[in-house]
Amino acid sequence: MFGAGGGTSSYREIEETDLVVLWGSNAREAHPIFFHHLLKGLRRGAKMYAVDPRRSTSAQWADAWLGIDVGSDIALANTVGREIIKAGLVNIEFVRRSTTGFDEYAAAVEPFTLAEGERLTGVPASVIADFAHDYARADRAQLCWTLGITEHHTATDNVLALCNLSLLTGHVGRYGSGLVPLRGQNNVQGGGDMGALPNKFPGFQDVEDDAIRAKFDAAWGVTVPAQRGWHLAQMFDAMERGDLRALYVLGENPAQSEADNHRAVRLLEGLDHLVVQDIFLTKTAQLADVVLPAAVAAFESEGTVTSSERRVQRLRPALRPPEGARDDVEILGELARRLGSDWGHPSAEEVWDECRSLSPMHAGMRYDRLEALGGIQWPCPSEDHPGTPFLHGRLWEEDPDRRGRLAPFSPVAFEPPLDELTEEFPVRLTTGRRLDSFNTGVQSGGYASPLRRPETLDLSPEDMAALGLAEGELVEVTSRRGSITVPVHLERSLRPGLAFMTLHFPDQADTNVLTLDTWDPKSGTAEFKATAVRVDRLPEAVGAEPVAEPVAEKLEVG
Amino acid sequence: MTTMAPASTPVALRRNVELTVDGEPVTVPEGSTILEACRAQGIEVPTLCYLETLAPVNVCRVCVVELEGSRALVPSCSRPVAAGMVVHTASERVRTSRRMVLELLASSVDLSTADGDVHRWIDEYGARPERHGPSAPPGDRDHAHAGHHEPPEVGLAATVAQVVKRDNDQYVRDYSKCILCYKCVEACGEEAQNTFAIAVAGRGFDARISTELDVALPDSACVYCGNCIAVCPTGALMFVSEHDLRAQGEWDEDRQEVTRTVCPYCGVGCNLELHVQDNRIVKVTSPLDHDVTSGNLCVKGRFGFEFAQGGG
């Protein structure tokens, strides 16, 4: 946010805030322990708004649910912004003193009247107005989001649209007011922190900055290329062009996790050389020329991960890995040695200490301090620094020197999802997680979950009735990329025209056959959340006796 | 009454309160409980239903102390200190009351897997559960209605015995071991999980923990976070992994190592304590004193470790 790639607040703050906004986040199921903190806030009297196409198990806790049409987030945010301006609820002092670009922003949101907002998002104008007024008037407000915001072709712009609202109201840089992107995996934040981004070194230092690069060149004794690399989506495009011929995949299963995975598999198969380092022989590993068996990071190795509140915490080995599986650091060291560069046999702590010497925001995070303090939140620039519970407090400083670089408004245009709804593909399919499962099921498939049920196409009661479908009946779901067969499930949290699937059971029902792999040019995230599909009864089912009572009859009773 | 600083106020910012415990002057921050004042003095007060991460429910009465000027004994776990209080923790009245609580519980509940402290207290307070006679045969507690309680035959000790409930792959519920401390109900309810799958059903001696209408767990609202099991002090609620190892005589805490790491699932960063015996994870808990979880986990963090030991 505003230069640092992390959430601004601590979980603790949501317990003591006055207004909670969950936008494109079903934290009740995807981030259950964060939701405990949120519930403490509600118990203390905080008001809650949920913005989500589904009336999810999180949205059911909200005072108001904004059942937005999939992918219209920018339209909603811009409408909220305009309403805050028109109602005279801008935090003028904060905007004047701590931000730039307000006039351009105000001009950009001007077309987004409440009526236009209702037309574009499907949310009633009066509810948008209430939301805008409550957010602006709250003493403290936390704006939280997850992949409902970022798995769109406009991912980065979606985030900027939310940041604009925090600047308009001054809901950032104060205890209890902030922006909270909840990370989907235990080290998504840490991957970014450590420079696993095409344009960053550890600590979000820019690869294209000559002085920064000189520092790393000197420390590593090499010349780091002066240009940024490719992100994941660009890599697949480069494979398509034939510019990328060899790939080294660590702990990722793109053959199943990529959108439009027929294409992903075809491109992986076409590589000259594919190396996969994983704890399992995943579908991707099965395509590999070389598989490097790895230890389980969280249970079998030393290291650190960073959470959604920027808290760096230690991993410790509790289990011995199976015969032949090795720690990631060890594998990388061996690989380096065989490529002609001897790194010795550094421990995880030695690797971390080198990182601390090069990344100022991690400098004070000695292992023993991480241990004693239960983790430390970055930035932690020195060994006597306690870490930083919330970011951007500087924006509230009276002294311009201490205030530093002002936070820019970023006017963003609204573009609807690319996969258009038409008569041929009239249903909007969106994706998400279930409480007991995770991503493509590689980790979560192994335990006996009493909650687990197979993949289904979830449909609203109205659509089930209109299509004459019975619970559990197999249907064919078709998008512009492909078709799959899957049982249907009646889901009351869905509105007509909206369908839902997970990505948890690709061997049973490969949802990513349907999804569109167009990606956000700024972040490289694919639009998993907005696919246009058609739902057909299987030919043999049409005219046959239903396997169960059609839903329509049940509805009349209920 | 003086206005107290809220409990969330950092200790360093709270005013001090002076009181007397067992004849000694004690100074603690305002908002502290008598229990905390006793612990600060190194005085052991037994507790059963108390847990630092849950709001006190005052049901077990084993932590009672004598407070001068108070007609009844007071539960130390919930009573805030006030300036000038005079507290006795070891008077005959206190000891008699605690002995009675422990004796009645031990005569009616299977405490075989309870925390070791419970057995020590039973000895220290001279509780003699056996004097209530041999255990009466188990009744059908799940269907007991208010007003229909039938006392056991004279000379037999009434018990809370009932059939072990094992209706899913992760939990075993053996309510013969339940002392009705309410911790599981609180953890499932407002204090942590807010799922409300369980509550106390019935009245008086027939009171027991139950799902709505006593349905099986898979038919209830349960989401298998295991937070009820984590707070159970007697082993009435147990993970299947622990239960089965105990049944095989293989559960051995001396052979277990506990390692703290971070959950491999979402990005919240919950700390896990992996209990490992013979290179296998046999139980997962979370530290009570870590701000992120306060001891709570979700179903994935609690049970989703099998992928690391051949279950993938």
Give a brief rundown of this model.
The complex is a heterodimer of chains A (558) and B (312). By secondary structure, chain A is of the alpha/beta class.
Task: Characterize the structure shown.
Chain A is an alpha/beta fold. Chain A has 23 helices and 21 strands. In chain A, the strands form six sheets. Chain A has a six-stranded mixed barrel. Chain A has a five-stranded parallel β-sheet with strand order 3-2-1-5-6, with helices on both faces. In chain A, strand 10, helix 16 (283-286) and strand 11 form a beta-alpha-beta unit. The model of chain A is unreliable at 550-558 (pLDDT under 50). The longest helix of chain B has 17 residues, at 92-108. Chain B contains seven helices and twelve strands. Chains A and B meet through helix 3, helix 17 and strand 13 of A and strand 10, strand 11 and helix 7 of B.
According to CATH, the fold-level topology of the largest domain in chain A is: Rossmann fold
Strand fraction of chain B: 15-25%
Distance between the termini of chain B: 60 Å
- The oligomerization state is heterodimer
Envelope shape of chain A: globular
Keyword list:
heterodimer; A: 558 residues; alpha/beta; Dimethylsulfoxide Reductase, domain 2; Rossmann fold; Barwin-like endoglucanases; six-stranded mixed barrel; five-stranded parallel β-sheet; 23 helices; globular; disordered C terminus; B: 312 residues; alpha+beta; Ubiquitin-like (UB roll); N-terminal domain of TfIIb; 3 domains; five-stranded mixed β-sheet; three-stranded antiparallel β-sheet; 18% helix
Secondary structure layout:
The complex is a heterodimer of chains A (558) and B (312).
Chain A: H1 11-14, E1 19-23, H2 27-30, H3 32-43, E2 47-51, E3 64-66, H4 73-86, H5 92-98, E4 99-100, H6 102-109, H7 114-121, H8 125-137, E5 141-145, H9 147-150, H10 155-169, E6 178-181, H11 188-193, E7 200-201, E8 205-206, H12 210-220, H13 232-241, E9 246-250, H14 254-257, H15 261-269, E10 273-278, H16 283-286, E11 290-293, H17 297-300, E12 303-306, E13 311-315, H18 328-338, H19 348-358, H20 367-373, E14 376-377, H21 400-403, E15 407-408, E16 427-431, E17 457-459, H22 461-467, E18 474-478, E19 483-490, E20 498-501, E21 531-537, H23 551-557
Parallel strand pairs in A: 1-2, 1-5, 2-3, 4-15, 5-6, 9-10, 10-11, 16-20, 17-19
Antiparallel strand pairs in A: 7-8, 12-13, 13-14, 16-21, 17-20, 18-19, 18-21
Helix pairs in contact in A: 4-7, 4-8, 4-10, 7-8, 22-23
Chain B: E1 16-21, E2 24-29, H1 34-40, E3 64-67, E4 74-75, E5 86-88, H2 92-108, H3 116-124, E6 171-173, H4 183-188, E7 198-201, E8 208-211, H5 227-231, E9 237-239, H6 240-247, E10 256-262, E11 271-277, E12 280-285, H7 299-303
Parallel strand pairs in B: 1-5
Antiparallel strand pairs in B: 1-2, 3-4, 3-5, 6-9, 7-8, 10-11, 11-12
